Amino acid sequence: MQRILVTGTNRGLGLELVRQLLARGDRVIAACRHPGKALALTEMAGAHPGHLHVLPLDLSSERSIVELVRETTALTDALDALINNAGMLVSGERFGEIAHKSMLDSFAANTIGPVLLTQALVALLEKGANPRVMNLSTRLSSLAGTTAFGTPSYAMSKAALNMATRQLAAALAPRIRVFCVSPGWVKTDMGGANAPLSAHDSAAGLITLLDSASAATAGRFLDYAGKEIAW
Ligand SMILES: NC(=O)c1ccc[n+]([C@@H]2O[C@H](COP(=O)([O-])OP(=O)(O)OC[C@H]3O[C@@H](n4cnc5c(N)ncnc54)[C@H](OP(=O)(O)O)[C@@H]3O)[C@@H](O)[C@H]2O)c1
User: Which residues does a 6 A CB cutoff place in the pocket of ligand 1?
Assistant: First the structure.
């Protein structure tokens, strides 16, 4: 039984990660922006009494992060893993019309929020068993793989998350292993209906990676099947 905090859990990959972690008996703290509207999570909490706690978190608010950490500390004295899953993508950005707000919102949710949340949870992670932090990045963040213009706010904020992963991995080694992953192109609201991969298969791969993460995994960028991605 692991104690795992997952962000962005009301839909998409986050919801599926929670479903699979609960099914195997883990204790999950599921963070989402509006717990009162997260019906699937409420149902899961009923089906897994004592194993799922749903707490509010808006990653663009420092106060919300502080409050989540306070409530988490009241629920558990340790965390074995943090999955920084929540993220946002501004679609339809065109060169010449990139908006200040799109970039600020993207960096707040995709980079700054995950960094501050990780930092604030270090005390709980340090008391966990084999503590790990898995950051959800994307192939679109790869500098080496970028040859065309597209989703700049998303790509840049996730590239910054990759650097944050390296920074945090160095700051928290050897006790806490921090790494980043690409979940693949997944059928969710963000990935769309044409995505080839189901949330089920992606989440299963990500959980396998989380379980097998060792000191050698820290600071790396892997796909959901464990294959290295070029920065
Ligand atoms: N799907 C793909 O093909 C794909 C590919 C590569 C990487 N990823 C990454 O995988 C992760 C999960 O993606 P997904 O496909 O499940 O996306 P999704 O279906 O769009 O879900 C995104 C989740 O993040 C939450 N979120 C967004 N901004 C937030 C904020 N400021 N504070 C707190 N929560 C916030 C959303 O909450 P609300 O419901 O309240 O908006 C939602 O729960 C993301 O980090 C994404 O970048 C996905």
Answer: 8, 10-14, 32-33, 57-60, 85-88, 109, 136, 138, 182-183, 185-186, 188-191, 195
